[in-house]
């Protein structure tokens, strides 16, 4: 296969220009040094600031002042233990967890049902419904935040996590529906016919067949909704003013301004706050890429 | 393409009893429906039941607020009680006469262009890199996506500490003997926007790479294998096979990136704060809206800004869809239907 004649012009580059060097390549176990070099640089650039935050939490303020870009020496655990011992951190953690889980559950449930209708029913207004959600994709909460705040206030839901959860569900729906529709369309009609011959109704089909078969898409959208909610900043900023209800992003910001002189502790708080989303993501990373592959048919 | 025809209408046994819990409101489903038969009625009930909740939530929390903004934008209003002081287009005139708003629009446009120019090529390169079979590939992928997964607040807090005049970045430059590169990264209006672009690129490139990787994986291997057999070099294959086939993904990513750049708020507000961003030259339409609407308690004016922001985004989105996404209309994110070209 790789016996393709190398033309002299490209021979200088052959090391990095192996044909068929994409997915499923047959280069040696260590591939090409150039590729590894760029991968290392890339990872270093991506991880540098993250490590700055994590390591900074293990330093003292005087260490940070005298040598801002140095490593911890000696390592100090007290910043982290103090943050973990503080009620402020756990309250924010609780708010964030509750908000993110409720948002995820709501988005997946509502999105899956709506996507099922769009994918597998024929009716007048189906195209309009799809376009409505597709249009929603274009408008993140930013454009609607000012009136949304007024709406939530009129509902008496400011300083209530529900006032964050409901809009988050609404704004996460477009992406969810649009990612899920292709998954549900891809379920062969034969399966549905077989199910109906066996006496299952459309709804029975939905619960017994669609749910399990679309699981990859459901997981993808669920993770995206969870991370989106976990990291959400603008909506909680408008809706929540009671520090006891602050989600982690607001908590971090609040903590950072409150303890602006205690940089090390701020860094410890910050790095603890990103832990859950990171764990969640690294567990499901493969699923996310796989799920998007279904949605983004090139 | 799976346009599901209403499941072959099996006339004789319409399975009413089998799942009574599913076929919802029993009273209305009287045995004799003279007009179009029960399946059609049932179908409508199912559609309503399944799509209804999502539609209600979506319309109530997404569509209604936008309409409310259009209404409130005509009033001078502090947000308490019903708006009474109708001022016509005065808010809009004020917006367009305000040079700080025009500056903000200018910043948004620069961010749009710079995001596309910086992130696009980089993301494609990284995706090509990560799509190869190299050691530790899955670990590298996870690490590269870390900046995208952590929140804007974490990113903003971390970077603003690093970029202080006596922060880690300047210190590192000093250690490397690059003192002449040391800057007042955040405060200097001449470079603040550039600093913002670095942070944005660092933060969002992971998402672009995820999308590009997903796009790359849907390109059949056979094509590049065939080209390789015909003697094409690695770069020739990427240029003439991968890139064109990646087109729809790139165009969708560009669309999402443009919209995101127009709505940019979090990072600016966290790193620069509400007041500094205007003087540091990093204000955006959204931070302008937050400062002059919400923080100032001028909700009539804030809503008018929201409308302007909405209309600008809408126009750009429509133009983009009309001229760039048109050929993908059935493909990629917008349709999920297979399209052949």
Précis, in short:
With 298 residues, chain A is an all-alpha fold. Helices cover 71% and strands 0% of the residues of chain A. Chain B starts with 37 loop residues before the first helix and ends in a 6-residue tail after the last helix.
Q: What can you tell me about this protein's structure?
A:
- The complex is a heterodimer of chains A (298) and B (341).
- Chain A is mainly α and 298 residues long.
- Chain A folds into 2 domains: 31-76, no CATH class; 86-295, MetI-like (MetI-like fold, Orthogonal Bundle), CATH 1.10.3720.
- Chain A has 14 helices and no strands.
- Chain A is globular, with a radius of gyration of 25 Å.
- Mean pLDDT of chain A is 78; it is low at 1-30.
- Chain B is mainly α.
- Chain B has a single domain (90-335), classed as MetI-like fold, CATH 1.10.3720.10.
- Chain B has a two-stranded antiparallel sheet with strand order 1-2.
- The longest helix of chain B is centred in the N-terminal third of the chain and has 35 residues, at 38-72.
- The relative contact order of chain B is 0.11.
- Residues 1-36 and 330-341 of chain B have low confidence and may be disordered.
- Chains A and B meet through helix 2, helix 5, helix 6, helix 7 and helix 8 of A and helix 1, helix 3, helix 4, helix 5 and helix 6 of B.
**What is the element string of chain A, with H for helices and E for strands?**
HHHHHHHHHHHHHH
CATH class descriptor of the largest domain in chain A: Mainly Alpha
Q: CATH topology of the largest domain in chain A, anyone?
A: MetI-like fold
Largest sheet of chain B: 2 strands, antiparallel
Describe how the helices and strands are arranged.
The complex is a heterodimer of chains A (298) and B (341).
Chain A: H1 8-11, H2 33-56, H3 61-66, H4 78-85, H5 87-120, H6 126-136, H7 141-154, H8 162-185, H9 189-197, H10 202-213, H11 215-231, H12 234-239, H13 248-258, H14 263-295
Helix pairs in contact in A: 2-14, 4-14, 5-8, 5-11, 5-13, 6-8, 8-11, 8-14, 11-14, 13-14
Chain B: H1 38-72, E1 75-76, E2 85-86, H2 90-97, H3 99-130, H4 137-149, H5 152-162, H6 168-175, H7 189-217, H8 221-229, H9 234-262, H10 266-280, H11 285-295, H12 299-323, H13 332-335
Antiparallel strand pairs in B: 1-2
């Amino acid at each position: 296969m790789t016996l393709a004649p190398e033309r002299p012009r490209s021979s200088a580059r052959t090391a990095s220009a192996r044909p068929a060097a994409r997915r499923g390549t047959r280069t040696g176990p260590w591939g090409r040094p150039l590729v590894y070099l760029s991968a290392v640089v890339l990872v270093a650039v991506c991880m540098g600031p993250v490590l700055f935050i994590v390591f900074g939490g293990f330093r003292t303020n005087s260490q940070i002042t005298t040598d801002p870009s140095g490593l911890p020496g000696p390592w100090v655990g007290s910043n982290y233990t103090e943050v973990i011992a503080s009620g402020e951190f756990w309250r924010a953690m609780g708010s964030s967890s509750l908000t993110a889980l409720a948002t995820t559950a709501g988005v997946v449930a509502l999105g899956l049902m709506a996507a099922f209708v769009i994918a597998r029913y024929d009716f007048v207004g189906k195209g309009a419904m799809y376009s409505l959600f597709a249009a929603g994709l274009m408008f993140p909460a930013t454009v609607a935040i000012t009136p949304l705040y007024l709406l939530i206030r009129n509902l008496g839901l400011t300083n209530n996590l529900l006032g964050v959860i409901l809009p988050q569900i609404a704004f996460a729906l477009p992406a969810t529906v649009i990612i899920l529709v292709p998954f549900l369309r891809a379920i062969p009609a034969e399966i549905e016919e077989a199910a109906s011959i066996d006496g299952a109704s459309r709804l029975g089909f939905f619960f017994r067949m669609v749910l399990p078969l679309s699981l990859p898409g459901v997981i993808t959208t669920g993770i995206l909704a969870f991370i989106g909610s976990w990291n959400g900043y603008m909506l909680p900023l408008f809706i929540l003013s009671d520090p006891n209800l602050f989600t982690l992003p607001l908590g971090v910001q609040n903590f950072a301004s409150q303890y602006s002189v205690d940089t090390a502790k701020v860094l410890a708080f910050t790095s603890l706050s990103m832990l859950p989303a990171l764990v969640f993501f690294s567990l499901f990373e493969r699923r996310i890429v796989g799920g998007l592959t279904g949605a983004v048919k090139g | 393409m799976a346009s599901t025809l209403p499941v072959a209408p099996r006339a004789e046994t319409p399975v009413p009893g089998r799942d009574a819990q599913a076929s919802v409101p029993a009273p209305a489903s009287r045995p004799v429906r003279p007009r179009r038969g029960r399946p059609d009625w049932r179908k409508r009930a199912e559609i309503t039941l399944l799509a209804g909740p999502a539609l209600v939530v979506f319309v109530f929390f997404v569509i209604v607020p936008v309409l409310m903004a259009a209404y409130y934008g005509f009033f001078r209003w502090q947000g308490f009680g019903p708006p009474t002081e109708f001022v016509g287009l005065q808010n809009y005139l004020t917006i367009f006469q305000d040079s700080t708003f025009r500056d903000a629009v200018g910043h948004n446009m620069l961010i749009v262009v710079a995001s596309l120019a910086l992130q696009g090529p980089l993301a494609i390169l990284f995706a090509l890199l990560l799509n190869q079979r190299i050691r530790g590939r899955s670990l590298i992928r996870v690490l590269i996506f870390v900046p995208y997964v952590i929140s804007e607040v974490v990113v903003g807090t971390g970077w603003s500490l690093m970029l202080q005049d006596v922060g880690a970045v300047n210190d590192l430059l000093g250690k490397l003997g690059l003192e002449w590169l040391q800057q007042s990264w955040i405060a200097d209006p001449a470079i603040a926007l550039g600093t913002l672009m670095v942070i944005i690129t660092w933060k969002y490139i992971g998402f672009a790479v995820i999308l590009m990787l997903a796009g790359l994986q849907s390109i059949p291997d056979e094509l590049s294998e065939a080209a390789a057999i015909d003697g094409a070099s690695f770069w020739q294959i990427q240029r003439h096979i991968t890139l064109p086939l990646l087109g729809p993904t790139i165009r969708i990513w560009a669309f999402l990136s443009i919209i995101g750049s127009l709505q940019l708020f979090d990072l600016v507000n966290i790193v620069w704060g509400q007041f500094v961003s205007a003087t540091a030259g990093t204000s955006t339409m959204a931070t302008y809206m937050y400062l002059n609407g919400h923080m100032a308690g001028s909700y009539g004016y804030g809503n008018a800004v929201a409308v302007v922001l909405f209309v600008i985004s809408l126009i750009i989105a429509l133009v983009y869809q009309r001229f760039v996404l048109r050929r993908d209309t059935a493909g990629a994110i917008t349709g999920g239907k297979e399209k052949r070209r």
